[in-house]
Amino acid sequence: MWPLTRNKHRRWTEDLSTYLDDQLSPSAQDALETHLTSCASCREELESLRNVTSLLHRVPQVPVPRSYTLS
């Protein structure tokens, strides 16, 4: 994404993670969804974040060694 386009969409891209976590206010969510219908670059960014989230959920959880736990 070109720097000028990135700056223009900063407001939207900063909300994408919060949107994925379902933490946006209803009005902010509506505004973002409206923007997403007309902005391919923001939709691509959202899909990229969804892919990263999906990959992170697949990483196996490893038990913490006892030496790292607080007593």
Entry keywords:
mainly alpha, 4 helices, 0% strand, single chain
Radius of gyration: 17 Å
Q: What series of H and E elements makes up the topology?
A: HHHH
Strand content: under 5%
Largest sheet: none
Low-confidence stretches: none
Number of helices: 4
- Averaging pLDDT over every residue, what do you get? 85
The geometry reads as elongated
Distance between the termini: 49 Å
Q: What class do helices, strands and sheet pairing give?
A: mainly alpha
Helix-residue proportion? 55-70%
Summarize the structure.
The protein is an all-alpha fold and 71 residues long. The protein contains 4 helices and no strands. α2 packs parallel to α4.
Question: Explain this structure to me?
Answer:
With 71 residues, the chain is an all-alpha fold. Helices cover 69% and strands 0% of the residues. It is built from 4 helices and no strands. It has helices at residues 3-8, 10-20, 26-38, 40-58. The mean pLDDT is 85.
Summarize the SSE layout with pairings.
Elements: H1 3-8, H2 10-20, H3 26-38, H4 40-58
